[in-house]
Amino acid sequence: MSDIITLYHNPRCSKSRAALELLDRHGVQLTVVEYLDTPPTQETLDALLDMLDLEPRELMRTHEQEYREAGLDDPALTRAQLIAAMLEHPKLIERPIVVRDGKAVIGRPPEKVLELL
To answer: What is the block-wise mean pLDDT of the chain (117 residues), using blocks of 10 residues?
Structure first.
């Protein structure tokens, strides 16, 4: 098992900060990706969805203004269109996401990240 964990992090999010603190307390080697500043690529987002076993809409923050304004609740939108929306508006991506050895969890609640340790 790899010792490196990747945290897709938003420092303004309390759940994301709590997950980071939890991981720090456990002394894990950590790569932090502030995904609002460095959004994932399409390939990375696709891989995250596969690891999480989620469809794009399930990884989206549906209460964000960008979600409503872009009409992303339209059931006719394809997987590719929803992923494109998250790439254009990374704020829509649920957080925090923690990845280790091809597995991922959403840190809600933050203690969920401990599943990967």
So the answer is: 84 96 94 96 97 97 95 97 97 97 96 94
Helix intervals (H) in the chain = 14-25, 42-52, 65-69, 79-88
CATH superfamily of 40-93: Glutaredoxin (3.40.30.10)
Q: What is the pTM of this model?
A: 0.93
Assign 57 to helix, strand or coil. helix
CA end-to-end distance (rounded Å), the chain: 10
CATH class of 1-35+95-117: alpha beta
3-class DSSP state of 45 = helix
Q: What are the residue numbers of the active site?
A: 13
Domain coordinates in residue numbering, the chain:
1-35+95-117, 40-93
